Amino acid sequence: MPSFSRRDFLKTAAATSLASAGGWQPALAADEVLKVGVIHMGAISDTGWEHYQAEAWHALEKAYPGKVKVTMLENISQIQDCERLFRQLSTQGNKLIFGTTFSQYASLKKLAPSLTGSHFECCAGIEPGPNLGVFEARHYEGTYLTGIAAGRMTKSNILGWVGAFPVPQVIYGLNAFLLGARSVNPAATLKVVWANAWVDPAKERDAVAALVAQGADVVSGSPNSPVQGLAAEEKGIWSIGSTGDFSAYVKKKQLVSFELDWSSAHINAAKAVMDGTWKPEGRWRGLGEGGYVKMTTNTPELPASVAAEMKAAEADIIAGKLKPFTGPIKDQAGTQKVAAGSTLADNDIKGMTWLVEGVQGTLPKT
Amino acid sequence: MIEQVIPLVVATLVAGTPLVYAGLGELVTERAGVLNMGVEGMMVIGAIAAFAVTQATGNVWLAVLAAMVAAMALSVLFAVLAISFRANQVAVGLALTIFGTSLGSYLGKPYVGMALVVEPSALMQAAARLPLLGPILGQLHPLVWLSWLLFAAVWYFLYRTRRGLVLRAVGESPTSAHAIGYPVQRIRYFATLFGGAMAGVAGAYVSVLYTGLWTEGLIAGRGWIAVALVVFATWRPGRCFAGAYLFGGATMAQLFAQSAGIGLPSELMSALPYIATIVVLVLISRNATVMRLSVPASLGKPFSARA
To answer: Which of A51, A162, A203, A206 to mutate to test the interface with B (most CBs of B within 10 A)?
Structure first.
């Protein structure tokens, strides 16, 4: 029986790393299959975030039939396990490896420079690093548009938002939601309730009940399941499919929705690796062709004038004429955060830790 | 004001109900001297069984029955290992939680993202017409009303019946109970099965009536709160019943306070059940007599007639 000692292993490993340290990346031969690894921290069956991440590599497989082999690991909830598995995927010859959540970013940032046999991409990462690309959706463009519908449809002028955790991604989403609503209805206010959980359907349902008790008649939030929409439907108020279209479940009272579509992120990265042109990039895209935000279902009850208003705003955002975080914008305390006529820089949006004027609720102190 | 209070009361009763079922079940189990930490796992199995049956038949009561059977099956596993083979109860209980949670996720795969539509029963519509309590009762499923009956039954059983006395005797001193001829192992089996069945009902309530939706992580630690609740209640049904609503209400109050613009540290409120349990543990263990009066003396200790 051939034996492979630890010394042999070290020799091979050293040789491999020397060979790959030169930064030279060959294009894949025409008949070679690109091995792609994906690690989901949650279950891909969550109907929300991880579901859309999985849709992306499904699209990748479909775009290159027989040319791409995806190895997927799901429900790896401990970051230590993710780290071990990222290494394992890399040593197993996966040339392109995806992390699906912000929580994996720190690990990937640490691992990517040393695992030079693979290229890494992290969804919702902060900034690209050596051998690590990041991509994130400007989903505030979606919440701005759904905010327009909410602002038009509310009768009580009270909107509700169920937040998962007070991270910038959630904060700029809900801020833009109210800015969108106020662009058509200056009297609108937004009540925020934090669930302090990414997935706890029972608590999300109760949060909706609490918002309804306070007079909210359109609710949105960061849902990973249709439960918020179902709870709202039961109470007879509108819900909005934010980062997910739940019209298949919420049959009557889903007002509008948008989805996250990451397929272009996966396909472009895979193509770059195949061509040998991959380099670490930070991509932050919203609406439009090749973007990560897609407007989906409107209820038939949405007045055509409102739908047209949303369409016009969407076209303006895609054309770059409308930027949701354009001043004057004040925070809750009334301090001016963005001066009239100027637009918030991307980095300020990414690091947003304040709520706009008209949001009723506080950020849990950290 | 009353419009603000009724939703809060209803939400508290709804949130407390799974804790009432799981807590009272675990309480009976522990009063017989068996510490089953697998409540979370049994709840998950009960939840998926009930969800699957509702999906297939649309009958909530059939679903509750299925949940009871499924969760009881899991508690039989516990009983065989921990009572018959006298394995460490804590270890088996933890294993049961891990096993139940994973098995539930696996069995639940085909049901992910499905939503159930449960029509309000005729009973609820009738109750809604009652004076005074109508607006509250009409929003609560009869399973909630049954949990109040369950509390009365458990209390009556433990303190007013001979069998209840025997069960408590088994929990205090299995050797004495055995010496005067009571089947200790069999009684412990029954107590464990009852605990399993009630955890199953609790799971069914969460998946079918509370959320009407299946996702992984649906139970979200409510089984652990039930275990903590029994300690918090110092093994007394009345305190267990009240504690369930206290713990359920703490979460609700926090959500309602947030939406009303009152700042409460929500993380601390989420940790309240565990903090309260630790405080109670500290209070009762300060005094050896109180400790002896509260905790079933043989809790967690395997019994062997031959020893």
So the answer is: A206
Closest alpha carbon to A181 in A319, A310, A295? A310
Q: Do A227 and B109 touch (CB under 8 A)?
A: no
Alpha helices (H) in chain A, listed in sequence order? 6-21, 49-63, 79-91, 105-111, 139-153, 168-184, 201-213, 227-235, 263-275, 304-319, 346-350
| pLDDT recorded at residue A120 | 96
**Nearest chain A Cα distance for residue B238, angstroms:** 25
Q: What is the mean pLDDT of each run of 10 residues along chain A (366 residues)?
A: 60 55 57 91 82 94 93 89 94 94 92 94 91 94 96 96 89 95 96 85 88 93 84 92 88 92 95 93 92 92 94 95 93 92 91 92 71
Tokens 């009881």 correspond to: B72
For every residue of B11-71, DSSP letters joined together read HHHHHHHHHHHHHHHHHHHHHTT---TTHHHHHHHHHHHHHHHHHHH--HHHHHHHHHHHH
A216 within 8 A of A192, measured Cβ to Cβ: no
CA distance A161 to chain B (A): 9
Predicted pLDDT at A200: 81
Give A365's contacts in chain B (Cβ within 8 Å): 265
The reported pLDDT for the residue numbered B167 is 96
DSSP helix/strand/coil, B165 = helix
User: Which residue is closest to B7 within chain A, CA to CA?
Assistant: A213
Beta-carbon separation of A226 and B252 below 8 A: no
Share of residues in chain B with pLDDT > 70 (%) = 97
Query: Is B107 in a helix, a strand, or coil?
Result: helix
Contacts of A78 in chain B (CB under 8 A): none
Structure-token pair, residue A15: 């040789």
Q: Worst-scoring range by mean pLDDT, B1-5, B36-40, B243-247, B301-305?
A: B1-5
Residues in chain B with CB shorter than 8 Å from the CB of A160 are: 259
**Structure tokens, A210:** 């609490």
ipTM greater than cut 0.95: no
Beta pairing, strands A282-285 & A132-137: parallel
Among residues B35, B16, B40, B20, the alpha carbon closest in space to that of B237 is found at B20
Residue with tokens 């399973």: B143
DSSP H/E element including A119: strand A119-123
* B105 near A CB under 8 A: yes
Q: Which of A156, A193, A235 to mutate to test the interface with B (most CBs of B within 10 A)?
A: A193
Q: Is B238 on the interface with A (CB under 8 A)?
A: no
Owner of token pair 């519509």 = B125
User: In angstroms, what separates the C-alpha of B20 from chain A's closest C-alpha?
Assistant: 16
pLDDT > 80? residue B14: yes
- Cβ contact A50:A74 at 8 Å: yes
Q: Which 3-state string (H, E, C) describes A130-170?
A: CCEEEEEECHHHHHHHHHHHHHHHCCCCEEEEEECCCCHHH
Can you tell me the distance from the alpha carbon of A67 to that of B12, in angstroms, rounded to the nearest whole number?
Answer: 55
Q: Chain A neighbours among B 263-302 (CB < 8 Å)?
A: 263, 265-267, 270
Record the tokens describing residue A314, joined without a space.
């969407």
At residue A43's C-alpha, the angle toward residues A38 and A44, to 5°, is: 65
Residue type, B24: L
Residue A115 CB contacts under 8 Å (≥ 6 apart), including other chains:
A86, A87, A90, A131
Interface test with B, best of A50, A51, A200 (most B CBs within 10 A): A200
Asked if the Cβ–Cβ distance from A225 to B15 is below 8 Å, we say no
Query: How much is the pTM?
Result: 0.80
What radius of gyration do chain A's Cα atoms show? 22
Question: Taking the CB of residue B272, how many other CB atoms lie within 10 A of it?
Answer: 17
**What are the chain B neighbours of A232 within 8 Å (beta carbons)?**
none
